[in-house]
Design goal:
Elements: H1 3-24, H2 27-34, H3 46-54, H4 58-64, H5 66-76, H6 78-82, E1 87-90, E2 99-105, E3 110-115, E4 122-125, H7 127-143, H8 150-169, H9 174-178, H10 182-189, H11 196-203, E5 213-215, E6 221-227, H12 232-245, H13 247-250, H14 258-264, E7 265-273, E8 284-289, E9 300-307, H15 311-314, H16 325-336, E10 345-349, E11 352-359, H17 374-389, H18 395-404, H19 407-433, H20 435-453
Antiparallel strand pairs: 1-4, 2-3, 5-6, 6-7, 7-8, 8-9, 9-11, 10-11
Helix pairs in contact: 3-20, 7-17, 7-19, 8-17, 8-19, 12-14
Length: 457
């Protein structure tokens, strides 16, 4: 046999082995391969808390298991992947909890409405954004036990496509397009009576330190804050970097350099939010600072959140973004949000990348648990479609959208969402049946229980 034939057989054999290995992977194996490498190996809460969030229900797995979604898309959405002319910057993590208000004026608490939380932004054909939206709406209906016939699903998808396309064609912001919607109007009103001082009551003890835990009125632990005061100096360097990366953010701060920032840091704590799913397990910090904002006579908590490559990158469905992950997150947020958010920057601390913003009391997001009937579901679907379409308001992009939003795409979205909802159900069963997952979830529950019983606030 010729040498070239042997080489071909070897390549085919290796490819077959790789294909068998990937296809034989369970959902935990995929997550450990794609998400696990970015977790702090010294943080015993990291992967257990992530898995605890994922096995809660199908919506929790959808919010936090996008690695599984993009891994599935590799073999089920090849036609879209080949359509590179449809590529544009995408939000990347389409669920209702990532639609809401964001701050545009810190003195008055002025808000805008649109997509929020750009941890998973990336560049891909826009159809993947639409598929996530359709899965989200259908899953919301399933969780709320709202029955939808096949005909109703097709009609709902058709309206979502039209609303998305109309918003992409428009020159009005998502805030302006949705201002009269009752749900959005309520979110835009915010909590006018709240201010930074009231927000601090939730997170700061009487002696001026960050609390060890935040408890709801029902006695449930909402957040765990672990002391990290030893990181004050690296945090000061990181915050100084963040201000240098965003002149707009820098002009709103009373501190201008690393030395003054360090002097203004009162406390640092590592944050674990119990209800988080998408970024659960990654490193996050609260930094309590002494009156850092121009015109705000109050101490403020800064939020420093680890950023990693998007799930689309981690699964290899697209190439690696050359930007630092925190930079990608901040720049894509600036690109896709009109008006831009006022506190949005990034930095590196050690060998990790972070997004930097502030903790404020006014913003809020859509809550799928508020949806109880078909009318409310249709309203949420429209809000999603308009908010998402408004992120793609560019003549070239809207032209690409116009050429592809048709009956064929609607049919693909219905079929692919059918297929992925079945896959999601299968993945949840597999995770719950995996003994490794069970043991880690128990470890997370024990830690939460210990925190609930600990002395303190």
């Amino acid at each position: 046999m010729k040498r070239s034939h042997w080489v071909t057989m070897i390549i085919l054999g290796v490819t077959a082995l790789v294909t068998v290995r990937v296809s034989a992977e369970g959902p935990l194996d995929v997550l450990q391969r794609t998400y696990g490498p970015y977790l702090d190996k010294n943080d015993t809460l990291a992967m257990p808390m992530k898995l605890r969030a994922l096995v809660t229900d199908e919506y929790g797995l959808w919010r936090g298991g996008k690695d599984l979604f993009f891994n599935w898309c590799r073999t089920h959405c090849r036609e879209w992947l080949a359509d590179t002319d449809a590529t544009m910057t995408l939000h990347g993590d389409q669920h209702l909890g990532n639609i809401g208000t964001y701050l545009v004026d810190q003195r008055r608490g002025e808000l805008a409405f649109g997509m929020v939380d750009f941890d998973d932004s990336h560049r891909m054909p826009f159809m993947f954004e639409l598929l996530q939206g359709v899965v989200t709406v259908r899953l919301t209906a399933r969780e709320a036990q709202i029955p939808l016939s096949n005909e109703e699903v097709r009609a709902l998808v058709g309206r979502m496509l039209e609303d998305y396309r109309a918003a992409a064609r428009s020159d009005r912001t998502a805030t302006d397009l949705l201002r009269n919607d009752p749900i959005v109007a309520k979110l835009l009103t915010g909590s006018p009576k709240r201010d930074f001082a009231q927000e601090l009551k939730r997170y700061v003890t009487r002696d001026g330190k960050l609390v060890e835990r935040v408890v709801t009125k029902r006695g449930m632990v909402k957040e765990i804050l672990r002391p990290a005061g030893q990181l004050a100096e690296p945090m000061a360097r990181g915050i100084a970097q963040a201000l240098s990366h965003s002149p707009d953010m820098a002009k709103r701060f009373t501190y201008a350099d690393e030395q003054s920032i360090r002097a203004g840091i009162l406390d640092v704590a590592q944050r674990t939010r119990i209800g988080s799913a998408g970024s659960q397990g990654l490193t996050k910090y609260f930094v309590l600072m002494f009156r850092p904002l121009v015109g705000v006579d109050s101490n403020v908590v800064l939020y420093v959140k680890q950023e990693i490559p998007s799930p689309a990158e981690r699964t290899g469905i697209i190439g690696k973004d050359p930007r630092d992950p925190g930079q990608r997150c901040a720049e894509d947020m600036d690109e896709l949000c009109r008006p831009r958010p006022v506190f949005n920057s990034w930095c590196r601390i050690g060998d990790q990348s972070y997004w930097v913003t502030i903790r404020e009391p006014w913003t809020n997001e859509l809550d799928p648990e508020d949806i109880k009937n078909v009318k409310e579901l249709e309203a949420a679907a429209r809000i999603w479609a308009v908010a998402s379409g408004a992120t793609h308001q560019h003549p070239r992009q809207s032209a690409a959208i116009d050429r592809r939003v048709n009956a064929k795409l609607a049919g693909q979205l219905v079929q692919l969402s059918d297929d992925y909802l079945r896959q999601l159900e299968s993945d949840l069963k597999a995770l719950r049946a995996d003994q490794r997952v069970t043991e880690m979830v128990r470890a997370a529950e024990r830690k939460i229980g210990e925190t609930r019983l600990a002395p303190g606030q």
